[in-house]
Write a structure and sequence with these properties.
358 residues; mainly alpha; 0% strand; elongated
Length: 358
């Protein structure tokens, strides 16, 4: 079931693959972009930075960073967003081997050498430079399940984790199945506590299932938000271009056409402001959800540290990683919300400028 959940999430990511987040373009420059009325080039760089920092697919992140670090970043970012670069990166990510690489990377990062040594070692081996596409495909098809079985044998031979289980552990996982903010964590927790579930299922949940579900939930959240943001960005770029054209037409209009042209330009900038609302609301909601998840994983981290048992010890590092990821998402969403608020202010100021002209 765990494999099905992971593979389904990879497939879901492919369905969402028509979507819109080094150091050289850091937070200070990003803040400068959103603080003033941004130009199109600045808007493009802010969007590409979001892909580079925030997208779960490595191909998209890499191509976004390449655009930002280009010798001509304005042209490179425009090409990435509207010249086919983003679509090409997503297309490559959707290819089978790229999906396998992302799957293996996720497995490697969510299975620790201490509690899942076979899975961790196999994934690490396949992430090396010399690994082949056929080796990766074989791991995804059968090798992953085989490595998990060997890890279960390893944990059974030691027996420490099964002996450490108490009813409070099972009750906690049942609570997660009902109330955890993440859909994947809820599903995996429900499987671990389903009627007929064994202690092996519960040990697996603590050893790797919880961390895997957490990673899938974070990736799914990012994909959803970025898909929406791409739609918002495409709309606003078109509307700003229309408003700028209408404003120029108003400046160039003859006296007898001036008022009508001004009215059209003012209406165009008003529409720009109106259409920032979905993005501002969406990013506010994303920020609030990320904050809730960060608080959730902080509580889980405290519970794991206080429990101090073999099963809960396996959760400490994943909980710390998940909390950090959701804090990063919360900060990114806050930056994006501020960026869209700056666009709203720009639209208001431009409408007023047209109103006060000649």
């Amino acid at each position: 079931m765990y494999k099905r959940a992971l593979v389904c999430a990879v497939c879901t990511a492919a369905l969402f693959s028509s979507i819109t987040p080094m150091a050289a373009f850091a937070a200070t420059e990003y803040s400068a972009v959103i603080a003033a009325a941004p130009t199109q080039a600045e808007r493009d760089r802010a969007d590409v930075l979001t892909y580079a920092r925030y997208h779960p697919y490595s191909t998209v992140k890499t191509d976004a960073w390449l655009a930002l670090s280009s010798s001509a970043p304005d042209l490179a970012c425009a090409d990435f967003l509207r010249g086919g670069g983003l679509e090409y990166a997503i297309e490559r990510a959707a290819r089978r081997d790229e999906q396998n690489k992302d799957f293996i990377k996720r497995v490697y990062e969510t299975n620790t050498p201490q509690y899942s040594p076979e899975v961790h070692a196999a994934a690490k081996h396949l992430l090396r430079a010399g690994a082949t596409a056929s080796e990766r495909e074989q791991f995804v098809r059968t090798g992953y399940e085989a490595a998990k079985a060997r890890d279960r044998q390893f944990r059974d031979a030691i027996g420490e984790q099964k002996r450490a289980l108490v009813e409070a552990d099972r009750n906690y996982v049942r609570m997660l199945a009902q109330h955890d903010p993440g859909e994947q964590v809820r599903a995996i927790a429900a499987y671990a506590t389903r009627p007929g579930a064994t202690d092996d299922d519960l040990v697996d949940f603590f050893a790797w299932g919880w961390a895997s579900g957490a990673r899938l939930d974070n990736d799914a959240h990012r994909l959803r938000v970025l898909q929406n943001n791409r739609q918002w960005s495409n709309t606003i770029v078109r509307l700003i271009a229309d408003a700028e054209a209408a404003e120029k037409a108003a400046r160039d209009a003859s006296d007898e056409m001036a008022e009508e042209a001004k009215a059209r330009a003012m209406a165009a900038w008003r529409e720009v402001g109106t259409q920032t609302a979905p993005a501002r609301t969406g990013w506010d909601e994303a920020r609030d959800f990320a904050a809730r998840q960060a608080e959730n994983w902080h509580a889980i981290l405290l519970a794991a540290q206080q429990a101090n048992t073999p099963n809960w010890d396996a959760v400490v590092d994943p909980a710390r990683t998940s909390q950090a990821a959701w804090i990063e998402d919360q900060n990114a969403a806050a930056e994006q919300a501020a960026y869209w608020t700056a666009l709203l202010q720009q639209a208001i100021e431009r409408e007023q400028r047209v109103r006060e002209s000649r």
